[in-house]
Write a structure and sequence with these properties.
The structure holds two protein chains of two kinds. Chain A is an alpha/beta fold. Chain A is 33% helix and 25% strand. Chain B is mainly α. In chain B, 51% of the residues are buried. Classes of the chains: A alpha/beta, B mainly alpha.
């Protein structure tokens, strides 16, 4: 299968990316197909989070091409006369629009955060995952609330739906984050060290839920982590080091 | 009662009452932002900037109040913008402004030959000096605060909850944060005029801290903050009239009482 073909949900080719003068990803190429569960394992500083940021459109690559769900969010080749004539700012605006469209199709699960200073119940926190479907001028409607409630149920948090996040354990907060990522009805899930800072049993519980939900929903998933993942449950486990895929 | 009604018929007292009413019900919402974004050092910074503004005003031959008010307002806009453009943390921006403004204030005072003690009047404030223009500013600012929270309720909630997540979802985090920063600065500038630099917390911060002890969500935090702000400001205002006390200090005492009661009640509840 070639990068950019319809079955490839993610296609990165020759991507270079970093922050200022620090280059983190070097000539990075990766193709992920629809429905795959891919683990990316590597030590801290190997570029895993930067890879996710590139996919989320939060870090602009300095070279290479990034295609997600058939949309080029970075490094598209201008072939037509119209696109060749476009000035830089228009091209950047179009890329920004493409990134915003792609972002609406991505569910993101970050690593465990400290409990927020702001009080928020589980169901409200999950509803926030619908942002992008609703926004400044459109408020969440009954459909958004129904989907959020369904996702709360899916991760086994229905009984705790009205509890404040601050009163929950780390594992329960991560399950809430997983529900929030699912509430977007995403075509792709990106997980950044989801089990870090959890105790052993909460780690195992979350991992089982992620694998079961992947089996049930078939959402293309990339999980980056510095910990080992159960290889038999993943379609592929890739290794990263110093910005290179090994 | 008739004494209070008679007092309210005096324009200066009426302006003061309306100022406290609007500030209590609207500017207190900013306390929730300050606590959630860990910007509690901001009022300390803006206090120092107010001192510079007062020094600049007096060096130019004006009263210290308007100088402090104007500079705090300008500084909050600059802080919001520079914090984003140079990608430096809010605390770095605050440190930069705090030290820089203090140094500049004392240099200005020395050059202009203004007695340093005259400038410190800005710390106490005097709500009875509030002009019609000041009142209009507080009302417009109050309306702006309510509008921003109404239009960008979910976006602000996401930013306060988790900036990284908000960014990943596509929320314009820098824009929202800069906007909040400017609102907080403008709120501090208005409170500076109402109760003086030392008591800014009474209107802006304390109602928010008290509200977060009881709130079950962002919405209830905002509503409780407005309620506590109103109790502190309006209660403090009438307390001042009844017991013949300074209005700013009375409002600050009422605000402290509200916070103390909230701490006590939440302890008992838990």
């Amino acid at each position: 299968m070639t990068p950019g073909s319809p079955e490839a949900v993610i296609a990165l080719s020759g991507v270079h990316a970093g922050y200022g003068s620090t280059r983190v990803l070097h000539d990075f190429s990766l193709t992920v197909h629809r429905g795959e569960l891919v683990g990316v394992v590597g030590p801290n500083g190997s570029g895993k989070t930067t890879l996710l940021k590139v996919l989320l459109g939060l870090v602009e690559p300095t070279g290479g091409r990034v295609e997600i769900l058939g949309r080029t969010i970075s490094g598209g080749r201008e072939t037509g006369r119209r696109t060749r004539r476009m000035n830089g700012s228009l091209r950047r605006r179009l890329a920004r629009r493409e990134r915003a469209r792609v972002r609406r199709t991505i569910g993101y699960l970050p690593q465990l955060q400290a409990p927020p200073a702001l009080p928020i119940t589980v169901d409200e926190a999950v509803l926030l995952g619908r942002w992008g479907r609703y926004s400044w001028l459109r408020r969440p409607d009954s459909e958004d609330r129904r989907i959020a409630a369904e996702c709360v149920e899916m991760v086994g948090m229905a009984e705790l739906a009205r509890r404040d996040l601050k009163t929950l354990s780390g594992g329960q907060r991560q399950r809430t984050s997983l529900a929030r990522a699912l509430a977007r009805r995403p075509e792709m899930l990106l997980m950044d060290e989801p089990t870090t800072y959890l105790d052993k049993s909460a780690k195992a519980d979350l991992m089982v839920r992620i694998i079961d939900l992947h089996e049930l929903l078939g959402i293309t998933t990339i999980m980056v982590t510095h910990e080992e993942v159960p290889g038999r449950d993943f379609d592929r486990v890739l290794r990263m080091e110093e910005g290179y895929l090994l | 009662m008739s004494d209070i009604i008679a007092a309210l018929s005096i324009p200066v007292i009426r302006h003061a009452f309306l100022g406290m009413l609007i500030a209590g019900g609207t500017l207190s919402l900013l306390g929730v932002v300050i606590v959630s974004l860990h910007l509690t050092a901001i009022r300390f910074t803006l206090m120092h900037i107010g001192l510079l503004g007062a020094a600049a005003g007096m060096s130019l031959g004006f009263a210290p109040g308007p100088g402090a008010f104007t500079l705090v307002l300008v500084a909050s806009v600059v802080m919001g913008v520079t914090g984003k453009r140079f990608s430096i943390s809010a605390s770095s921006v605050m440190g930069l402004f705090m030290t820089g403004s203090l140094a500049a204030a004392f240099l200005l005072l020395a050059i202009a030959g203004v007695p340093a003690m005259d400038v410190f009047g800005v710390f106490a404030g005097n709500i009875l000096l509030m002009t019609r223009l000041d009142l209009i500013f507080v009302a417009v600012l109050g309306a702006a605060v309510i509008t921003v929270f109404a239009v960008a309720y979910r976006e602000i909630e996401l930013v306060l909850l988790d900036e990284e997540l908000a960014r990943a979802l596509g929320v314009p985090v820098d824009l929202v944060t800069a906007g909040l920063f400017v609102l907080v600065g403008a709120g501090v500038a208005a409170a500076l005029r109402l109760v003086g630099a030392l008591l800014v917390d009474a209107i802006i911060l304390l109602p928010g801290i008290a509200a977060l002890r009881f709130a079950r969500g962002f919405g209830s935090a905002l509503l409780l903050s407005a309620l506590f702000g109103l109790i502190a400001c309006v209660g403090g205002f009438f307390g001042a009239l009844v017991f013949d006390l300074p209005i700013g200090a009375s409002a600050a005492a009422a605000s402290t009482l509200v916070l103390a009661l909230s701490v006590l009640l939440s302890r008992l509840k838990n």
